[in-house]
Amino acid sequence: MTTTHVPNSPDSSRDPKALYGGKGSRRITVRDIAAAKARGEKWPMLTAYDAMTASVFDEAGIPVLLVGDSMGNCHLGYESTVPVTMDEIAVLSAAVVRGTKRAMIVADLPFGSYQEGPVQALRSATRLIKETGAGAVKLEGGERSAEQIKLLVEAGIPVMAHIGLTPQSVNAFGGYTVQGRGEEAAQQLLRDAKAVQDAGAFSVVLELVPAELAAEVTRTLHIPTVGIGAGSQCDAQVLVWTDMAGMTSGRVPRFVKQYAQLRDVLGDAARAFAEDVVDGAYPAEEHAFH
Ligand code: KIV
């Protein structure tokens, strides 16, 4: 008798490692993501920028990890995502792929790597897929990026789109403000969402969008929506990991829920280590070789 594995069947739904495609035997694919939407299942996504952190999230059962250009602010010490380069995305994406066995890894196309047109986008995306082993790329923009998405998808590269607040355009927006407010802006957001779906994107990030509008987009599209500051009705939710785990210093956006205070934990550990060294308590006899 043969048994068919049903991903995330009711008996496996409590084990996060059993979500969307088996117990670690293969990577999550776009088919698993499409099947989750068809079944009405919500899923989590986190950013990751290095192999070790990525391995923690992979073992925790996070099905999709984004090597986001948020690495600019959260990992590389830039003021925004704008300066992030292809080389930086490539090096960190390859590290995240090496640190994981199961998650789908999405590599972000940085500012300036696809805006010139579809051919530039294809060149950049091909490089990331070939050099890093990532399973998909993400790019920002709705109608304005539809031609790029179409060519990448035709070339066999899965694309996650990103609309609403698109941080690479922060200078044009004049800040990180909620998008899609008012009838005209809401209609534009709906047009953007349909444009990326029609172009072949397998999912779309909705960033800083009113919850009611995000819910309408989610109902309208057959591809999953991934919300960040877009209310509870999206098919998936993404957070920048340093925000989610309390590593970020200072104020975090209102939509962030912090599930730990890693910055305090790490600071305490560093202070305890320093104290032990100064006091001569470390290294102790058990740490020494003779
Ligand atoms: O770069 C990033 O981390 C992102 C997410 C916030 C969606 O684009």
TrEMBL record:
<feature type="active site" description="Proton acceptor">
    <location>
        <position position="207"/>
    </location>
</feature>
<comment type="subunit">
    <text>Homodecamer; pentamer of dimers.</text>
</comment>
<feature type="binding site">
    <location>
        <begin position="69"/>
        <end position="70"/>
    </location>
    <ligand>
        <name>3-methyl-2-oxobutanoate</name>
    </ligand>
</feature>
<comment type="pathway">
    <text>Cofactor biosynthesis; (R)-pantothenate biosynthesis; (R)-pantoate from 3-methyl-2-oxobutanoate: step 1/2.</text>
</comment>
<dbReference type="InterPro" id="IPR015813">
    <property type="entry name" value="Pyrv/PenolPyrv_kinase-like_dom"/>
</dbReference>
<feature type="binding site">
    <location>
        <position position="138"/>
    </location>
    <ligand>
        <name>3-methyl-2-oxobutanoate</name>
    </ligand>
</feature>
<keyword id="KW-0808">Transferase</keyword>
<feature type="region of interest" description="Disordered">
    <location>
        <begin position="1"/>
        <end position="22"/>
    </location>
</feature>
<feature type="binding site">
    <location>
        <position position="108"/>
    </location>
    <ligand>
        <name>3-methyl-2-oxobutanoate</name>
    </ligand>
</feature>
<comment type="similarity">
    <text>Belongs to the PanB family.</text>
</comment>
<dbReference type="Pfam" id="PF02548">
    <property type="entry name" value="Pantoate_transf"/>
</dbReference>
<keyword id="KW-0963">Cytoplasm</keyword>
<keyword id="KW-0460">Magnesium</keyword>
<feature type="binding site">
    <location>
        <position position="108"/>
    </location>
    <ligand>
        <name>Mg(2+)</name>
    </ligand>
</feature>
<keyword id="KW-0566">Pantothenate biosynthesis</keyword>
<comment type="function">
    <text>Catalyzes the reversible reaction in which hydroxymethyl group from 5,10-methylenetetrahydrofolate is transferred onto alpha-ketoisovalerate to form ketopantoate.</text>
</comment>
<feature type="binding site">
    <location>
        <position position="140"/>
    </location>
    <ligand>
        <name>Mg(2+)</name>
    </ligand>
</feature>
<feature type="binding site">
    <location>
        <position position="69"/>
    </location>
    <ligand>
        <name>Mg(2+)</name>
    </ligand>
</feature>
<feature type="compositionally biased region" description="Polar residues">
    <location>
        <begin position="1"/>
        <end position="11"/>
    </location>
</feature>
<protein>
    <recommendedName>
        <fullName>3-methyl-2-oxobutanoate hydroxymethyltransferase</fullName>
        <ecNumber>2.1.2.11</ecNumber>
    </recommendedName>
</protein>
<dbReference type="InterPro" id="IPR040442">
    <property type="entry name" value="Pyrv_kinase-like_dom_sf"/>
</dbReference>
<dbReference type="InterPro" id="IPR003700">
    <property type="entry name" value="Pantoate_hydroxy_MeTrfase"/>
</dbReference>
<keyword id="KW-0479">Metal-binding</keyword>
